[in-house]
C-alpha cells in the first residue's frame, strides 16, 4: 500500500503541501488544526484557517447555485453554502476584494469571534486569507431565516410560543457574546436569525464582525438604524439593544414596521392593530403587552434609557410556554434524522464492529491485523538509521505491547513518542492511538488521529471507520453514517482490486 513515509525534515505529513503560519496551529487537509481539538464542545469544529482551494471545492468554485444570501450595494458580500471533504455542511461569507486590506487585522478579528462557542449561536469555525480574498466559515443552518418564516412563509405562520422562543434564544445569544467580551453585533435583524437542523433559532456569527475594516455597520434601511449611529457612525452595546427592539417588532407584527411608526401605535394603545393578523388571535394579550413594552424600551431615542442585555433575558424567560414541544414541531419541519441509516454497502468485520460501537471488537481486529496495512515502507539509507530511529521504533514496540495488553494510557504515551519524532509516519499507529483515546473517553483526540491517518493514506478504510466511531461518540450521527459508508465503499473497492484499503 505504500503508506509509510520517511521524512527527517518535518513532523507533519502535510507540511510539504500547505503554508503554516508560525503564530497559528498547523492544520490538516480538511481544515482542522493540529494543536486545537478537531471538534469542540457540542460537536462544533475547532476554529481554524482554511485554504482557498478547500473552500472553492466545498462551494463548487463559488457557484451561483450555492448562494444562500446576498446583501445590498452598501455592503456587497455573498454567503454560500458548501460541503467539506469530511461531509460537514458550512456557510461561507465572501467579502469583496480589499474590504479588509490588512490580512492580519482580518485574521485577528476572525480569531476573536472564533473563540465563541454557544448553542444559541451559528458558530464561526474558520476563515481564509488568500491574496485579496477574505472569507469567513460558519456552521450551516439548513432551515432558513427568521425573515423567511415571518415574512415569506408558504405553509404556516410562526405560532406565538415559537416567536417568544426566538426572542429569548436571541437575547441569550447576545448575553453570551457580551459576557465573552464581544458585545457589539452589527446590523441585527430578522435575516441574522437562522434555524438549525432541529428548528432551534440561532444568531448568525457573521454579525459579530463588520462588513469591512472601515465599512458601514448597517446595511438596512435608515428607518431601522439606531439614531446614535446616524449621529456618530459607531456601534455601541446600546445600539444592539435598539436593533433587538426592531426584531421584537417583527415578531409581534409579522411585518417590518419602522420603529417610529410602531412607537406611535404603541403610544396610541393600538396594540391589536400592531399584532400579526395571521396569528388569528392565538396569543396571550398579557404576554404581547410585556413584549411590546420591552420593545418600546429598547427603541428609546436616548441609549441610556434602553434596558441592558441581561434585562432582555430576565423579561423574556418567564413568558416561555410549551417547553416540552420541540422547535421543529412548532415550525412544521421534519426532524433531523439522528439514527444512522442502513449502510449502502455490506459491512466487513471491522465495519460491523464500528457500526455497533464495539470498541473491544475493534481492538481485537487492530491487534490481529498488526501493521499489514503499513506494508510498502520506503527503505531507509544507512545514514538515516540513527539511534533516534532505534529509540523511536522502540517506543512504538512498547506502545504495541501496551495496546495488546489494553493498557491504553501507556500506549498513548508510547505512540506519542513515536509520532512526535516524526521521522516515520504510520497510519496504523494513528489508528491505534485513536482507539486508545476512545477507550479513555477522549473522542475529540480520537477523531483528530483518525483524520491524520486519512491524511497519510487518503483511501485507507480503517481511517474512515475510526472517524465514524469518534463522530458517533460526539453525537454527530449523520456524519458518522456518511463516514461508515465511505469506509465500506473503499473496502469494497479494494476487494475488487482497486487502490483503496
Automatic annotation (TrEMBL):
Q: Which reaction does it catalyse?
A: L-threonyl-[protein] + ATP = O-phospho-L-threonyl-[protein] + ADP + H(+); L-seryl-[protein] + ATP = O-phospho-L-seryl-[protein] + ADP + H(+)
Q: Which GO terms describe its molecular function?
A: ATP binding; protein serine/threonine kinase activity
Annotated membrane topology is: Lipid-anchor
Q: Please provide the record's keywords in A-Z order.
A: ATP-binding, Brassinosteroid signaling pathway, Cell membrane, Kinase, Lipoprotein, Membrane, Myristate, Nucleotide-binding, Serine/threonine-protein kinase, Transferase
Residues spanning the signal sequence: none
* Region of interest (Disordered), residue spans: 1-35
Q: Among the entry's GO cellular component annotations, what is one? A: plasma membrane
Which is an annotated Pfam family here? PK_Tyr_Ser-Thr
- PANTHER family, per this entry? SERINE/THREONINE-PROTEIN KINASE BSK5, SERINE_THREONINE-PROTEIN KINASE BSK11
Please state what the protein is called. non-specific serine/threonine protein kinase
Amino acid at each position: 500500500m505504500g503508506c509509510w513515509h520517511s521524512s527527517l525534515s518535518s513532523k507533519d505529513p502535510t507540511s510539504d503541501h500547505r503554508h503554516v503560519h508560525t503564530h497559528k496551529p498547523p492544520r490538516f487537509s480538511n481544515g482542522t488544526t493540529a494543536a486545537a481539538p478537531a471538534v469542540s464542545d457540542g460537536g462544533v469544529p475547532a476554529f481554524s484557517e482554511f485554504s482557498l482551494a478547500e473552500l472553492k471545492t466545498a462551494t463548487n468554485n463559488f457557484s451561483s447555485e450555492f448562494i444562500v444570501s446576498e446583501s445590498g450595494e452598501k455592503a456587497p458580500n455573498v454567503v454560500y453554502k458548501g460541503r467539506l471533504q469530511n461531509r460537514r455542511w458550512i456557510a461561507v461569507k465572501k467579502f469583496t476584494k480589499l474590504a479588509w486590506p490588512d490580512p492580519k487585522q482580518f485574521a485577528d478579528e476572525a480569531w476573536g469571534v472564533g473563540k465563541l462557542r454557544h448553542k444559541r449561536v451559528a458558530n464561526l469555525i474558520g476563515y481564509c486569507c488568500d491574496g485579496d480574498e477574505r472569507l469567513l466559515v460558519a456552521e450551516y443552518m439548513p432551515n432558513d431565516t427568521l425573515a423567511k418564516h415571518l415574512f415569506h412563509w408558504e405553509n404556516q405562520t410562526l405560532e406565538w410560543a415559537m416567536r417568544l422562543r426566538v426572542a429569548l434564544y436571541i437575547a441569550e445569544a447576545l448575553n453570551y457574546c457580551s459576557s465573552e467580551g464581544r458585545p457589539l453585533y452589527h446590523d441585527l435583524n430578522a435575516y441574522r436569525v437562522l434555524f438549525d437542523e432541529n428548528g432551534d433559532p440561532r444568531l448568525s456569527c457573521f454579525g459579530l464582525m463588520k462588513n469591512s475594516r472601515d465599512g458601514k455597520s448597517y446595511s438596512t434601511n435608515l428607518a431601522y438604524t439606531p439614531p446614535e449611529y446616524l449621529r456618530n457612525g459607531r456601534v455601541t452595546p446600546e445600539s444592539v439593544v435598539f436593533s433587538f427592539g426592531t426584531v421584537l417588532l417583527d415578531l409581534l407584527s409579522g411585518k417590518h414596521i419602522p420603529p417610529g411608526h410602531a412607537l406611535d401605535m404603541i403610544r396610541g394603545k393600538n396594540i391589536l392593530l400592531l399584532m400579526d393578523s395571521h396569528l388569528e388571535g392565538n396569543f396571550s394579550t398579557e404576554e404581547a403587552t410585556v413584549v411590546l413594552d420591552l420593545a418600546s424600551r429598547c427603541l428609546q431615542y436616548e441609549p441610556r434609557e434602553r434596558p441592558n442585555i441581561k434585562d432582555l433575558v430576565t423579561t423574556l424567560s418567564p413568558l416561555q410556554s410549551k417547553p416540552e414541544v420541540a422547535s421543529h414541531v412548532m415550525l412544521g419541519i421534519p426532524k433531523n434524522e439522528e439514527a444512522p441509516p442502513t449502510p449502502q454497502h455490506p459491512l466487513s468485520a471491522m465495519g460491523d464492529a464500528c457500526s455497533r460501537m464495539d470498541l473491544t471488537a475493534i481492538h481485537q481486529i487492530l491487534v490481529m491485523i498488526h501493521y499489514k496495512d503499513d506494508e510498502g515502507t520506503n527503505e531507509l539509507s544507512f545514514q538515516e538509521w540513527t539511534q533516534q530511529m532505534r529509540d523511536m521504533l522502540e517506543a512504538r514496540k512498547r506502545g504495541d505491547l501496551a495496546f495488546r495488553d489494553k493498557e491504553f494510557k501507556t500506549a498513548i504515551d508510547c505512540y506519542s513518542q513515536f509520532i512526535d519524532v516524526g521521522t516515520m509516519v504510520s497510519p496504523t499507529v494513528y489508528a491505534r492511538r485513536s482507539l486508545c483515546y476512545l477507550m479513555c473517553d477522549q473522542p475529540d483526540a480520537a477523531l483528530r488521529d483518525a483524520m491524520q491517518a486519512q491524511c497519510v493514506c487518503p483511501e485507507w478504510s480503517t481511517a474512515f471507520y475510526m472517524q465514524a466511531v469518534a463522530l458517533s461518540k460526539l453525537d454527530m450521527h449523520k456524519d458518522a453514517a456518511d463516514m461508515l459508508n465511505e469506509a465500506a465503499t473503499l473496502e469494497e473497492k479494494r476487494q475488487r482490486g482497486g487502490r483503496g484499503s
